[in-house]
Amino acid sequence: MDQQALPLSRYTVLDLTIARAGPTAVRLLADWGANVIRIEAPVEGDIAGSRHGPDSQNLHRNKRSLCLDLKSAAGKVVFADLVKKADVVMENFRVDVKHRLGVDYESVKKINPSIIYGSISGFGQEGPYAKRPAVDQVIQGMSGLMSITGEPERGPMRAGIAVSDTSAGMFLGQGILLALLHREQTGEGQWVHTSLLEAMLCKLDFQAARYTMNGEVAGQEGNNHPTLSPMGVFHTSDGLVNLAASTDKMWNAFCAVTKAESLMNNDEYRSVEGRLKHRDAVWNEVNEITTQFTSAELVEKMNSVGIPCGPINSIGEAFEDDQVSFLNMTKTAIHPENGELELLRSPINMSNFGQGNRFDKPGPDLGEHSSEILRELNYSDEKIAELMADGTIK
């Protein structure tokens, strides 16, 4: 490890999560030092190749894997022994699954009353949809996100990332930290839970508040900002840029630096409200001006007078950008088979803790640390061999 005593190094987390939302929450804790034990079910024909790929490695770095059959009586005993020494248990099973396995909050709390138990579901732990399965895109649609994404009259469009999965994961991670702070003060454990649907409704932010306060249903705006103008995508002589000149100060600066006297002198465009009212006309006239410059020229001119403006990069171009290079957004994980892997680091920066250059562990193979973890519970080699032989662990 690059440094000792990271903020969460005194905590042990039992990770029962699958898919993306739950692992995203656990990754937050793992990256900042938590001892994360990923408890995985035995799988016939587990394919190491997928575990060695970018998705699995990025989600599960800094974790150890215990392959444990939670359906067996012996497996339940092992799990109980782990819970006794753990601080956090995290899961994102469907609501009925965790009860069927006996790893629900009430069952775990009986073993360790001070446990922090974290859950992510699709729709919430209770309610008419509580038992439904969910995936990110279904939630994007049901939350209203897809209805405001994309161009007008072109139909709904999904966001290009798993935004409800990752948002729910981030919110649960924050909730776990809040619960740990509360336990520091009171000694009390508790159940912390969120859902993909709750996370996405929250992420709708001011567009949701426009409805809850005023009954206003936002629609698709394409690349235009829903309430400010001009703010959106504009053509240049060699490509496209994002440009935001919506405040009066920025608007005047745009007109001055581009010598657009006709825009400056247009009374209909003098106010924020006027520019929004005549947004299409403003866009057309601004676009005529931006096409007179290359993207690089326009980015330089706009930023020099305090107008946010930037290129529209591919992912590759984004990572080659000078600022991204300066931020050093990757760290190396040393994989025993695949060598050095460049993975995304935590975006959280803390003045007392450097990011370091290397992750503690790559994403684990199935059951890679089973024996090691049970030895930490003081299981004998003979007992471990017995559990291995009967299929309780692998």
Describe this structure as you would to a colleague.
The protein is α/β, with parallel strands linked by helices. It has two domains: 12-204 and 329-389, Rossmann fold (3-Layer(aba) Sandwich); 231-313, formyl-coa transferase, domain 3. 44% of the residues lie in helices and 14% in strands. It has 20 helices and eleven strands. It has a six-stranded parallel β-sheet with strand order 3-2-1-4-5-6, sandwiched between helices. A three-stranded antiparallel β-sheet has the order 7-8-9, with helices on one face. α1 (21-31) packs across α9 (163-186). It starts with 11 loop residues before the first strand and ends in a 5-residue tail after the last helix.
Give the termini separation.
26 Å
- Report the CATH topology name of the largest domain: Rossmann fold
Structural class: alpha/beta
CATH class of the largest domain: Alpha Beta
Helix share bin? 40-55%
Characterize the overall form.
Answer: elongated
Instruction: Provide mean pLDDT, rounded.
Output: 96
Order of strands in the sheet with most strands: 3-2-1-4-5-6
Give the total of domains: 2
Give the helix tally. 20
Strand content: 5-15%
Radius of gyration: 26 Å
Number of strands: 11
> The biggest beta sheet, please?
6 strands, parallel
Uncertain runs are none
CATH architecture of the largest domain: 3-Layer(aba) Sandwich
Report the CATH superfamily of the largest domain. Answer: Crotonobetainyl-coa:carnitine coa-transferase, domain 1
